[in-house]
Amino acid sequence: MAISIGIATKDREQIGEHLSRLLADTYSLYLKTHSFHWNITGPHFNSLHTMFETQYNELWLAADEVAERIRALDVFAPGSYSQFGKLTAIREEPGVPDWKDMVGQLVEGHEMAAHTSRQAIKVADSAGDEGTVDMVTGRLKEHEKTAWMLRSLLK
């Protein structure tokens, strides 16, 4: 059955491309945050271990929300490491940095995801896709808040 939700095919595909970048950023940030949760050491172990767990759980749920929005637009969602690697703006961390670098990298990651969110909002708004604008605005606020909280640890 053909989709008829009031958004043209070309617009849905373009929105899907931007949401796919957001999904890749979200999933990449999830992986990095989870890795840091496992590997954190030092004087702030307990607080950062707990904070990172809260953050990766939130990102896990967010990835599902973004992917399901892509599918609601009748676009296929990326779902492999190679696809995410091509789409994400989040840099991979191959090692185990100290706690300050972990926090700094997560600040960078959330800020990059905020940039990606803003681009997706612009594209969705120009197509009259209020559902995507609403969802991504929530994601944007979450990334900005998390970046602020992490950044505060470094002052």
From TrEMBL:
List the Gene3D superfamilies hit by this protein, alphabetically.
Answer: 1.20.1260.10
In what residue span(s) does the Ferritin/DPS domain sit? 17-154
Give this protein's Gene Ontology molecular function annotations: ferric iron binding; oxidoreductase activity, acting on metal ions
Q: Which PROSITE patterns match?
A: DPS_1
User: Which Pfam family name is an example for this entry?
Assistant: Ferritin
Q: Which domain of life is it from?
A: Bacteria
Task: Output the InterPro entries linked to this UniProt entry.
Answer: DPS_DNA-bd, DPS_DNA-bd_CS, Ferritin-like, Ferritin-like_SF, Ferritin_DPS_dom
Q: Can you tell me which family this protein belongs to?
A: Belongs to the Dps family.
Q: What is this protein called?
A: Ferritin/DPS domain-containing protein
Say which species the protein is native to. Dyella japonica A8
